[in-house]
C-alpha cells in the first residue's frame, strides 16, 4: 500500500530481482513503470540481502525512517547539544506524515534517509578545519555526495534541487583555504558522482521508453503528463489542484511550514501534518540564532544547505498539479534540526531570565511566551501519541487469502480475476500459471486493476501495443471466453468482493453470463474474495 503506487514500486523491485529491470510484468507482457528506478533499487536491496518478502516491503521504509530519526538526533547533537538532538528527533519521530509514510511502500522516507546520509558528508565537502583533511578524503567525500544526490534524483527527479542547497551554502559561506583549482576539482568530483546514477536512469529510459528523457508517467497518463503545461503551471499556485485541494499550492505549503496545514484539510481534528505550530516558532528562533553566530560556521553552513534545498523543492512543488506536504519531507530535516536548536536555546534563555532578579517586564513576558510554546508543543505531540496508541491497525485479509489460494491452485492453472493482475503476479507466482482479467474496469476499489484499465484506455485512444486479454471487453463476453472453454488446463475464477452496489451489479451480470458457458463451482470464500472452478458445459 498505498494502491496502486506501492504495488508498482514492489513489482518493479521484484522484477529487478528477476532480471527484467524496474518494470511491470503482468498478463504475459512487460510495461514501463511510472516511477524512476531509485526506490525499487532500495527495495530490491532489502529483498536480496535481507530476504525481505514482498508483503513486508514497508519495513524498508520503517528501517530507513528509524535510521533517519537517529541521524537527526546525532547531527543536531553534534552541532547544538544533546537537548537539541533529542527535541529534533522527537519532532521527526512524532510527525504524522513521517509516521504514516514510514509504514507505506513509498519513496519519501527513504529519500529523507539518503538526504541525511549526504548531509553527514557536508563537513568534508565544505570543510573549515585547519589543516584541511587529506585531499583523497575530500575528493572521495565529494564524489560520494554527488553520487547520493544523483541517487536521490533517480528516486524522484525533483530531488535534484538538493544541488541548489549545496550551491547556496557555498555562496553564503565561502570556503576558506580554497583556490580556483581546488574548487574546480571539487565541482568535477560532485558532477561525476551525480552523473553516474542519472546516466544509468537515462539509459534505462532509452531502453524501456524509447527516449532518455521520456517519462513513465507520460506513458501511462499522457492526457496529464504528456503536456508540461498540465503538470506544472502557475495556475496551481492559488488554483485548485489534486487531490481535492481548492486552495492552491501556496496556501497549503505556507501553512505546512507554519505548522497549521491541517486547518485547511477536511480531516476532523487535524491541526498539522508535518510538525506543530510551536515547533515552527522554535524553528524560526533556531534559524535566527544560528545565522547570527559567525563563530559556528559548520552549523550555519548546514542551515544554508537545508534552507536552499527546502526553498527550491517547495517552490518547485508550488507549480505542480498534485499537492501533498510529504513531497517536501526530504528537505524538511532542516526544520526539525532548527526547531530542536531553537527550543533548546529558548528554554536555556528562559531559565536564565527566571533566575535573574533584575529581569525586565519585557524579558519576563518573553520567558512566559516560551513556557506557553513549550506547553503547546507538549500538548500537540501528546495528542499525536494518544491518536497513534489508540489506533488498531488491522492485518490484511487479502494477503493470507491469496497465499491460501496459492496452495489450492495447480501450478498450470488459468486464473480469471477482477483483482489487479500485477498484484496476483506478486502473490500467486508460478512458472506456468496464467492470469486473465475478468474485465478492464477500475471503479477505484481496493484491489481493482488500475494498470489494466489504463492499458485499455490507451488502446481505445489508438495505441497499438499488446494488452493482456480480458473476458469482458464491454457488456458481452469477448473471444477470450471461447479460448477458456477449450483450454486443456484448469480454469479458476477469483473474485474480489465488490465495495459498491454499482460494481456489484456489474459483477453479478458478468457471472450470470459466465454461467451460460461454464459450470461455476465454489472452492473457497471469505469476506474479501471468492475462488471458483470453471468447467466448460457439455452440450
Fold and architecture overview:
The protein has 23 helices and eight strands. By secondary structure, the protein is α/β, with parallel strands linked by helices. Helix 6 packs antiparallel against helix 8. The chain is elongated and about 100 Å long. It starts with a helix and ends with a strand.
Q: Average pLDDT across residues?
A: 91
Instruction: Give the % helix.
Output: 55-70%
Radius of gyration: 27 Å
Question: Shape, please?
Answer: elongated
Largest sheet: 6 strands, mixed
Q: Tell me the number of helical segments per DSSP (H or I, 4 or more residues long).
A: 23
Structural class: alpha/beta
Give the strand line-up of the largest sheet. Answer: 5-4-3-6-8-7
Question: Which ranges are low-confidence, i.e. pLDDT below 50, for 5 or more consecutive residues?
Answer: none
User: Strand portion, in percent?
Assistant: 5-15%
The total strand number stands at 8
Span between termini: 45 Å
Q: How would you summarize what this structure contains?
A:
The protein has 539 residues and is α/β, with parallel strands linked by helices. The chain has helices at 5-18, 38-50, 58-80, 82-93, 96-101, 108-119, 122-125, 135-155, 162-172, 180-209, 216-220, 222-225, 228-231, 249-257, 277-291, 297-317, 333-355, 361-390, 398-408, 421-427, 450-460, 480-485, 501-515; strands at residues 23-26, 29-32, 414-417, 434-439, 470-472, 491-496, 518-525, 529-536.
Amino acid at each position: 500500500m498505498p494502491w496502486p503506487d506501492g504495488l508498482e514500486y514492489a513489482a518493479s523491485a521484484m522484477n529487478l530481482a528477476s532480471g527484467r529491470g524496474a518494470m511491470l510484468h503482468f498478463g504475459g507482457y512487460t510495461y514501463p513503470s511510472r516511477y524512476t528506478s531509485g526506490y525499487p533499487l532500495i527495495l530490491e536491496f532489502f529483498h536480496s540481502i535481507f530476504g525481505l518478502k514482498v508483503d513486508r516491503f514497508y519495513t524498508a521504509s520503517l528501517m530507513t525512517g528509524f535510521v533517519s530519526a537517529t541521524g537527526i538526533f546525532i547531527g543536531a547533537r553534534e552541532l547544538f547539544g544533546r537537548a537539541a538532538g533529542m527535541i529534533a528527533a522527537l519532532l521527526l519521530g512524532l510527525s504524522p506524515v513521517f509516521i504514516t509514510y514510514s509504514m507505506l511502500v513509498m519513496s519519501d522516507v527513504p529519500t529523507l534517509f539518503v538526504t541525511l546520509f549526504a548531509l553527514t558528508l557536508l563537513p568534508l565537502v565544505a570543510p573549515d578545519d585547519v589543516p584541511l583533511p587529506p585531499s583523497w578524503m575530500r575528493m572521495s567525500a565529494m564524489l560520494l555526495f554527488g553520487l547520493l544526490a544523483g541517487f536521490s534524483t533517480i528516486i524522484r527527479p525533483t530531488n535534484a534541487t538538493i544541488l541548489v542547497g549545496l550551491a547556496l551554502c557555498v555562496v553564503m559561506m565561502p570556503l576558506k583555504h580554497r583556490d580556483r583549482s581546488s574548487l574546480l576539482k571539487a565541482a568535477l568530483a560532485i558532477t561525476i558522482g551525480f552523473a553516474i546514477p542519472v546516466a544509468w536512469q537515462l539509459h534505462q529510459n532509452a531502453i524501456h521508453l524509447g527516449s532518455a528523457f521520456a517519462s513513465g508517467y507520460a506513458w501511462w497518463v499522457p492526457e496529464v503528463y504528456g503536456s508540461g503545461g498540465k503538470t506544472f503551471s502557475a495556475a496551481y499556485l492559488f488554483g485548485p489542484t489534486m487531490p481535492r485541494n481548492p486552495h492552491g499550492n501556496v496556501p497549503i505549503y505556507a501553512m505546512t511550514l507554519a505548522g497549521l496545514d491541517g486547518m485547511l484539510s477536511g480531516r476532523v481534528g487535524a491541526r498539522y501534518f508535518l510538525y506543530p505550530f510551536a515547533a515552527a516558532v522554535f524553528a524560526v528562533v533556531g534559524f535566527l540564532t544560528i545565522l547570527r553566530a559567525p563563530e559556528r560556521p559548520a552549523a550555519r553552513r548546514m542551515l544554508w544547505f537545508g534552507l536552499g534545498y527546502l526553498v527550491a523543492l517547495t517552490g518547485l512543488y508550488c507549480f505542480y498539479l498534485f499537492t501533498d506536504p510529504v513531497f517536501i519531507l526530504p528537505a524538511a530535516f532542516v526544520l526539525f534540526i532548527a526547531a530542536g536548536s531553537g527550543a533548546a536555546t529558548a528554554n536555556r534563555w528562559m531559565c536564565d531570565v527566571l533566575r535573574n532578579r533584575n529581569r525586565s517586564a519585557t524579558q519576563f513576558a518573553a520567558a512566559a511566551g516560551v513556557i506557553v510554546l513549550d506547553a503547546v508543543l507538549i500538548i500537540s505531540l501528546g495528542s499525536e501519541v494518544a491518536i497513534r496508541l489508540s489506533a488498531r491497525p488491522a492485518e490484511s485479509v487479502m494477503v493470507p487469502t491469496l497465499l491460501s489460494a496459492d496452495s489450492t491452485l495447480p501450478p498450470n492453472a488459468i486464473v480469471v480475476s477482477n483483482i489487479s493482475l500485477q498484484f496476483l503476479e506478486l502473490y500467486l507466482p508460478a512458472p506456468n500459471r496464467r492470469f486473465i482479467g475478468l474485465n478492464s474496469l477500475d471503479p477505484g476499489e481496493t484491489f481493482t486493476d488500475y494498470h489494466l484499465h489504463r492499458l485499455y484506455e490507451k488502446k481505445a485512444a489508438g495505441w497499438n501495443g499488446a494488452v493482456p486479454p480480458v473476458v469482458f471487453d464491454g457488456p458481452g463476453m469477448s473471444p477470450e471466453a471461447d479460448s477458456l472453454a477449450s483450454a486443456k488446463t484448469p480454469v479458476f475464477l477469483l473474485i474480489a468482493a465488490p465495495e459498491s452496489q454499482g460494481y456489484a451489479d456489474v459483477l453479478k451480470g458478468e457471472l450470470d453470463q459466465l454461467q451460460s458457458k461454464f459450470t461455476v463451482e465454489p472452492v473457497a470464500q471469505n469476506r474479501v474474495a471468492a475462488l471458483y472452478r470453471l468447467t466448460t458445459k457439455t452440450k
